[in-house]
Design a protein that fits this description.
Oligomer: homodimer
Strand order of the largest sheet of chain A: 1-2-6-5
Helix content of chain A: 25-40%
Distance between the termini of chain A: 43 Å
InterPro entries (chains A, B): C56_PfpI-like (IPR006286), Class_I_gatase-like (IPR029062), DJ-1/PfpI (IPR002818)
Structural class of chain A: alpha/beta
Number of strands of chain A: 6
CATH class of chain A: Alpha Beta
Shape of chain A: globular
Family (chains A, B): Belongs to the peptidase C56 family.
CATH topology of chain A: Rossmann fold
Organism (chains A, B): Niabella ginsengisoli
Protein name (chains A, B): Type 1 glutamine amidotransferase
Strand content of chain A: 5-15%
Pfam families (chains A, B): DJ-1_PfpI
Number of helices of chain A: 5
CATH architecture of chain A: 3-Layer(aba) Sandwich
Order of helices and strands of chain A: EHHEHEHEEEH
CATH superfamily of chain A: Class I glutamine amidotransferase (GATase) domain
Amino acid sequence: MKAWTNKNWGPEYTVDKTLNDVTADEYDALVLPGGVINPDKLRTNDEAVRFVKDFFDQGKPVAAICHGPQTLINADVVNGRKLTSVKAISQDLINAGANWVDEEVVVDEGLVTSRTPEDLPAFNKKLVEEIKEGIHV
Amino acid sequence: MKAWTNKNWGPEYTVDKTLNDVTADEYDALVLPGGVINPDKLRTNDEAVRFVKDFFDQGKPVAAICHGPQTLINADVVNGRKLTSVKAISQDLINAGANWVDEEVVVDEGLVTSRTPEDLPAFNKKLVEEIKEGIHV
């Protein structure tokens, strides 16, 4: 059994702020984790979708992995973007106008995407690069 | 807690046949149940997607509830069809060309869809109607 299917998710973190407490202005970048259930809920929360969209409107890096890009569909920000995701949602991203490719990590003007937890090393590396570029601009 | 969120799924059934054993010719109708994980796997199985598509090609009733319609997206059978689903995947169905509506049950020429387990009584009633109509034709 692979590490990411046996609930060995690593350390737990306490939520420090909720959507009501924050705006995109206060952050340098956004990471949308995956999981089958998490993005499925997040994409139905209009306030969360608006928060995600704000990062794109402000040109800040956004990273999404596995099912994370589902929320990007509802934020209406994938049309014309090159990206990847877990295979199960590839057709949904294509139908939303994305140029979907099967690669371990894709960077398209600040949008960093990967497919599965196995891609995490490449995903994290590119995400850090994008954040550093953003901060130095 | 609602009955359908506390794992009280009712009786379990043993799988009697797998995809390798069957063709759509042998059945009068197809039911695609929901769940967040089940259709997410099913839609990536090309043989399963082909099996689903065969029911549409043969004009047989197909019923899908909750996340069940995700597999219909991959079978490329929702374009121009009126249907419903769990809210989380509504944008994916719209992007695939469906006329998505928020109703407890929708019937469109043999395609029966509902949103959540709370819609099951209406869903089951319409499904039975469609099967009976199909058999008597």
